[in-house]
Specification:
The protein has 246 residues and is mainly beta. It has one domain (5-234). Helices cover 12% and strands 34% of the residues. It has 2 helices and 12 strands. The chain has helices spanning 42-55, 128-142; strands at residues 5-9, 12-16, 79-81, 92-99, 103-114, 145-152, 155-156, 164-166, 170-172, 190-201, 207-217, 223-234. The strands form 2 sheets. Strands 1, 2, 3, 5, 8, 9 and 10 form a 7-stranded mixed β-sheet that branches. It has a 5-stranded mixed β-sheet with strand order 4-12-11-6-7, with no helix packed on it. The longest helix is centred in the middle third of the chain and has 15 residues, at 128-142. It starts with a strand and ends in a 12-residue tail after the last strand. The relative contact order is 0.28.
């Protein structure tokens, strides 16, 4: 991403976190949005991504990391998450290492809402009616997307606009002070939802890969993003083995 928007609306935080692009050597591209390849759909993975991104302190958050040094923070399991920038930074290039066998999930560009009852003014308690209002607000912003592109090892992925997904409701726990919003928050679980364009890539082959994405929105103010990832996929070391050096 190249721009993060955090704003206090009449009730709550709407935060834009523009996702990042992963690589898929010799891969045809992202799995379809209706796939359930790793036990969860895109909508559930999107909620998990929000939980991951919001929980990490700003000082080590991959979203704020210009080099890729913190890409492995909070990662585990068969699916790794990738992050973009907050939107306030220029184009970035990150160099990261990913273990073989890990699928990659990330937002190309998205908006999300973190419900904050302790805010000023406070958000209403979470309810079906309030959720519908929040989702409608996010959808209206995402509808203003522009310039979407996703390139995997130099090959453009077609029809990126078909990768739009709204997340299920997540349970996001931000750090009290050292958080990506830059304001004090109650460090307890909050409801969170997102809407945007996402990609789930099957595990990449061992070796080097390059991913680049661009995009943006025109509302509530225009911006564009440009992010590149230089990814090295390394074999996982087998349990019980050690390396020796002469």
């Amino acid at each position: 991403m190249s721009r993060k928007l955090t704003r206090k609306t009449s009730s709550g935080f709407a935060a834009l976190l523009l996702g990042i692009v992963a690589s898929a050597a010799q891969a045809a591209g992202p799995l379809p949005v209706n796939s359930n390849a790793y036990g969860k759909g895109y909508d559930e993975l999107a909620a998990n991504w929000l939980e991951w991104a919001i929980s990490i302190p700003a000082s080590t958050n991959p979203i704020l990391d210009p080099t890729g040094a913190y890409a492995a923070v909070g990662q585990s399991g068969k699916v790794w998450f990738l992050a973009g920038t907050t939107g306030s930074s220029p184009a970035v290039t990150r160099t990261i290492t990913v273990p073989s066998g890990a699928a990659l999930f990330f937002p190309i560009v998205n908006y999300f809402w973190l419900n904050t009852p302790e805010g000023t003014p406070p958000d209403p308690p979470w309810s079906p009616e309030w959720e519908a209002e929040v989702r409608a607000f996010l959808a209206s912003l995402v509808d203003t997307y522009q310039g979407l592109s996703l390139t995997i090892d130099g090959k453009a992925v077609p029809n990126v606009e078909t990768l739009r997904v709204a997340s299920t409701v997540g349970s996001c726990t931000p750090p009290a002070n050292d958080n990506i919003f830059g304001v004090p928050l109650d460090p307890t679980p909050h409801e969170c939802v997102g809407d945007g364009f996402w990609a789930l890539l099957p595990p990449l082959s061992v070796g080097k890969h390059t991913i680049r994405f661009t995009g943006g929105f025109t509302s509530p103010e225009p911006f564009t993003v440009d992010v590149k990832y230089e990814i090295t996929v390394k074999p996982r070391q087998k349990a019980g083995t050690t390396k020796t050096h002469p």
